[in-house]
Specification:
mainly alpha
């Protein structure tokens, strides 16, 4: 669970690292919308950063809550972890696959895949939880 938490935190800061280093997101937006002025590209990048930050914060909260429930032996930990995994995977796939009006995906592939990486820890965590003896 803590690996998933760390991966979620890294995926959340990845767009900020991109903004200060490679600017993949800005280039992706500019390629999809070549008539956008720089101010509009910057505004769109900022909007994506806010949305991805909120999603990341919710993901961190979900990992922390689920890890606490498992550690505390709560009966609802397994189904909650499973639902959180399904929600997280759905959100990750949405970011990875959803096309915008330009015909390209809204996020560049590198950032879309970064959002999917925590799902790997999620599938392992859920599989391990369901293999354990029932929680009391």
């Amino acid at each position: 669970m803590y690996v998933g938490l760390a991966l979620t935190a890294l995926a959340t800061i990845a767009p900020y690292v991109d903004r200060s280093a490679t600017q993949l997101l800005a280039h992706h937006i500019r390629a999809g919308y070549p008539t956008y002025p720089q101010a509009r590209v910057d505004s769109t990048v900022t909007t994506y950063l806010v949305v991805l930050s909120v999603i990341g914060a919710l993901g961190v909260f979900a990992w922390l809550t689920t890890a606490w429930a498992v550690k505390a032996g709560k009966r609802w930990a397994r189904p909650t972890a499973t639902v959180m995994f399904m929600i997280g995977t759905s959100v990750g796939l949405t970011g990875l696959l959803t096309k915008d009006t330009s015909g390209a995906t809204g996020l560049p592939p590198a950032l879309g895949w970064a959002g999917m990486i925590p799902c790997l820890a999620g599938v392992v965590a859920v599989a391990l939880l369901w293999r354990r003896p029932r929680l009391t």
